[in-house]
Amino acid sequence: MRVLSGIQSSGKLHIGNYFGAINQMLKLQDDNELFAFIANYHALSGGVDLSELKDNTIDVAIDFLSLGIDPKKTVFWAQSQVKEVLELYWILSRYTPMGLLERGHSYKDKTAKGITASHALFSYPVLMAADILLYDAEKVPVGKDQIQHLEMTRDIAIKFNNEHGDIFTIPEALVEKSVATVPGTDGAKMSKSYKNTIEIFMEEKPLQKKCNKIITDSTPLGEPLEYEGNNVYALASLFLNEEQKAELQADYKSGKYGHGHFKKYLKELIWEHFRDARERKEYYTAHKEEVKELLAEGASKAKAIASKKMEIVRDAVGII
Ligand code: ADP
Ligand code: TRP
Q1: What is the mean pLDDT of residues 69-76?
Q2: Domains, the chain, ranges and CATH?
Q3: CA-CA 20 to 30 A from 50: which of 11, 120, 147, 166?
């Protein structure tokens, strides 16, 4: 099965990105044809500092590789290395009713938060549709917030196919229920735009500080704690199997421990889970040229597929 997903290069990757998208990609890369890319054109739609965008793109590439995306198995590139996606974006715009974009949650949320309502922000879902349809992806692993974008992609593809025949594969979102929305330090959805993230590659001390900041209730020490609805528990459970979760629940209920104890435990879980990835990150950070070469190799594989697809699309819509 062909699986595709992208992550914007708009800042440092966090635990929400990891469980919502990256971990699913890692699980899928052995038995599927995985396409993973860094959505650096998409990053132009938000409030990112453009002087950092080049470095951020390479940093996200390093993070992907460090977390285990294997370019021998997976086609891995930066979006801007395959320009065909912009041509398809324009062509798909013809099949995108204004009303479809006007209903976009992401656009509405971001403008409500004060991000300038630019055309890039508005038409962002059309570029995302182009990313997916250009490569005939069948499944797209994402977090819950991206489901509407996948629905838009399907609508656009169906409209196009109704006019021109079965040119595009109709994709489906792949959302893992247990990790659909990872909470941030304030309990809201973890997101760069809410400044409530726990980054994957933090130093140990700042990581503990971040964990200490997680909002919990004010049950006094010595009393049993409620784990349901507790943000520290919710985050810790992402790293645990069923048996370990049951043990943790019992510890919460025992009344023997306070919130501080569980915050330390959470830090340990995060720190251990990403230990190997941290070592690989050190290697790739010292070998950026190798990272660029890997991206270039991936881009040439992606481009071969994209240019064939565009010949078919151009022909269908009468572009010489
Ligand atoms: P952010 O909200 O921090 O800007 P992105 O929009 O770049 O994150 O998200 C990249 C990927 O990570 C998407 O597939 C998205 O669904 C997933 N993701 C981001 N935050 C979370 C979260 N808190 N829980 C689950 N998945 C998430
Ligand atoms: N919009 C996605 C996000 O913010 C990133 C993205 C861009 C994407 N193109 C994609 C995800 C194609 C999956 C498939 O997270």
Answers
A1: 97
A2: 2-182+288-317 (3.40.50.620), 202-273 (1.10.240.10)
A3: 147
Q: Is the pLDDT of residue 21 over 90?
A: no
Q: What is the predicted pLDDT for the residue at 19?
A: 92
Ligand 1: nearest atom to the Cα of 179: 25
User: Residue 78: its pLDDT value, please?
Assistant: 98
Q: CB of 244 within 8 A of CB of 265?
A: no
Cα 139 to ligand 2 centre (Å): 13
In percent, how much of the chain has pLDDT > 90?
A: 85
Q: Report the b/e string of 124-146 with b at 16+ CB within 10 A.
A: bbbbbbbbbbbbbbbbbbbbbbb
Rounded to the nearest whole angstrom, what is the distance from the C-alpha of residue 205 to the centroid of ligand 1? 25
Distance CA 168, CA 213 (A): 47
Mutate to test the pocket of ligand 2, among 128, 151, 194, 197 (most ligand atoms within 8 A of CB): 128
Q: What is the pLDDT of residues 151-174, one digit of tens each?
A: 999 999 999 999 999 999 999 999
Query: How many Å lie between the centroid of ligand 2 and the Cα of residue 319?
Result: 27
DSSP letter assigned to residue 159: H
Q: Give me the active site residues, please.
A: 110, 189, 192
For the entire predicted model, the pTM comes to 0.92
Query: How many CB atoms neighbour CB 3 within 10 A?
Result: 23
The CA distance from 62 to 66, in Å, is: 6
pLDDT, position 305: 98
Report angle CA 200, 201, 204 to the nearest 5 degrees.
110
